[in-house]
Amino acid sequence: MSEESHLKSGAQERMTAKPPETAERLLLSLLPEQVRENICGDLSEIFSVIIVPSCGIFRARLWYWRQVVCSMHLFFRFRKNPQAALKLWKGRTHMHQSMHDVVTYHPGISMHHISVGSGVPGFLFVLATVFIFGVGIPAFLVLLVITGTLGLLASRVILNWHKHHALDIQTLDLHKQKK
Amino acid sequence: MAKGEYLGEFEQLVLLALLRLGKNAYGVTIWEEIEKRTGRAVMLGAVYATLDRLEAKRYISSKVGDPTPERGGRAKRFFKITAQGLGALERSRKILARMWAGLDPVLGEP
C-alpha cells in the first residue's frame, strides 16, 4: 500500500470514528432522560470533530472514557436536583427509562415499593407453577422460601447500592418545597 | 446577598462563556470556550451539572435545537443567559472588584 493511500485510509478512518460503544451505553444508562440526548450528542461531536482529528482515534477513545468515568458523580447530580424532580413530578416530563428515574424523581416511591412490586409477580409465578405442574405443598413451601429469600437478597443489594450512591431523594421532602 | 445567590468560580466561567457565545451557546461551544480561554481541562459533565444548577436558579434558560449528523442525530440544547443571570454576574463582578481593590502594592503590580 502506497503512503498516499495509507494516509487516505487513515483520514477516512478518523472521519468515521465512533465513540467507544460500551462507554456510550454506560452513559446512556446513567443519564436521566432530559439530558441524555444533549450530553451524548455533545460528547459525540467533540469526539469526532475536535479530539479525533487532533489526537487520533486511540487517544480520543481514552478521552471519551475519561469523560464518562470522571463525570459519573456529576451525572448523578441531575438525579438529585429537586427542581428537576419537581418538574417531573408535575408531569411535564415522563416516560422513565429506568428504575433509578422512578425512585429518584417520584417522592413517595422507594426501592421497598419496587421490591414489593416485583415480589408480587414472583409469588404469582410460584402459584402458577404449583397449579401447572401439580407440585405438592412441601415443594410449594420450599419454592416459596427460595424465591422469597432470593427476592429479599436482591432488593437488599439494590437498596444498599442506592443508599451508597445517595440516589434516593425522598428525604428532600418535595411537598414542603412545593409550598 | 444570600448564600445561594453567590456565583461560584465555575458558574461565573459558564455564564461568561454564554455571554461571549451569544446565540451559538450549547454544550460543545461552551466547553470549548472555557477550555480555550482558561487553558484547563474541563469535563463536559461538570459543564452540564453547572448549567443544570444555573437553570434551576433561573439564571439561564434553554431550548432544544435541531439534530445534526456529526452528533449521531442527537439534538443540541442551546442556552441563553437571563436578566437574573446578568444581575448575578454583575453582583459577583462588583464583589470581586471590591476584594481586589487596593491590593496592587501587596501583589507587586505597577
Strand content of chain B: 15-25%
Tell me which protein chains meet in the greatest interface and how many residues each side has. A-B, 26 and 25 residues
**Which bin fits the share of residues in helices of chain A?**
over 70%
Ends distance of chain B: 32 Å
* Unreliable parts of chain A: 84-99, 105-109, 166-179
Instruction: Return the string of H and E elements of chain A.
Output: HHHHHHHHHH
In round numbers, the mean pLDDT of chain A is 67
Report on this model:
The complex is a heterodimer of chains A (179) and B (110). Chain A is 78% helix and 0% strand. The longest helix of chain A has 28 residues, at 137-164. With 179 residues, chain A is an all-alpha fold. The termini of chain A are far apart. With 110 residues, chain B is an alpha+beta fold. Chain B has a single domain, classed as Arc Repressor Mutant, subunit A (Orthogonal Bundle). Chain B is 55% helix and 15% strand. In chain B, strand 1 and strand 2 (74-81) form a beta hairpin. In chain B, helix 1 packs across helix 2 (27-38). The longest helix of chain B has 18 residues, at 83-100. The radius of gyration of chain B is 16 Å and the shape is elongated. The interface between A and B is medium-sized, with 26 and 25 residues.
